[in-house]
Model the fold of this input.
Amino acid sequence: MKANILLLPGDGIGPEVVAEAVRVLENIAGKCGHSFFFSERLIGGCSIDKFGSSLTDETLADCQAADAVLLGAVGGPKWDDPLATDRPERGLLALRKGLKVFANLRPVKVYPGLIDSSPLKPERLKGVDILFLRELTGGLYFGFPKGRTEKDGRVRVVDSMEYYDYEIRRIVELAFTLAKTRKNKIISVDKANVLESSRLWRQIVTEVGARNPEVAFEHVLVDTAAMRIITGPASMDVVVTENMFGDILTDEASVLAGSMGMLPSASLGETSLGLYEPIHGSAPDISGQGIANPVGAILSAAMLLRYTLKLETEAAAIETAVEKAIASGARTCDLGGSLKTHQMSDEIIKLIS
Ligand code: IPM
Ligand code: MG
Done:
């Protein structure tokens, strides 16, 4: 199998973790006879510095032409001015929109060896394996009207939670499809007691649910869902929700896994082109020290193999190697260990069979 993988290392620890994911992909390619061709472009703060834009048209076009895109992280204090016209995060949002990757898959799994890394009680964490499905190209992040105006000495700001029915339907349908490969169980998260967009969301989930009677679904309000992630995460399987709720709930859920550094994501659309990124940020506090946890990026590479390249065996081989490395005690500093970024990957690569 040949594939063109476009790398967008980005800012902060992004380049450090993407480099390790590439090592893992090269190792798998060597073992299984695949040829992966990597090219690299800028996104986020580094792209603002070099080109004056967080995502150039050329970079977006190169991403659209690739088979898959692997991203590190964007952002940092240097580009944090709230009044700046461009921000690193804008580049990431424009990329998601430009690639039309509306479905963000964020699996949250608790490895037995990391139960003690989480502040939650161990008995709540046993067997946690949740697949969050976050809508990624609609809602508050992209809705109109949006912006800041000034009138009569007052400043008015507006963000809009905007959704079209088709945008809700396609992510909900994907949730049902994925639920059938798991435990046939969905929690749909909304705020239907307050928001119009959530009432349409709920209506569509109910419609799709009626056509898929083998899948049990439940509507849960977002505030209650936030609580249940802490009180009963082991009973959750597929969780589907809109963009902003998904952003917040997945950071919350990352605490279950012991560290944000562990968690991967895949953003998918209607074609096989996918965008893969760890869910953590650029972590400016530790960047440049070689101590970041590369597991989120490595597991994102595994998702790339699974969803874009359909290399299930290779994807599973990476995931098993991560599991074994964790079980054998390999830990970066976010997990209370002392391994450097590249040493953590060494441990994982050694265990790929
Ligand atoms: C994430 C991040 C992004 C988001 C930011 C960096 C724009 O928090 O991927 O979860 O809000 O989507
Ligand atoms: Mg987030």
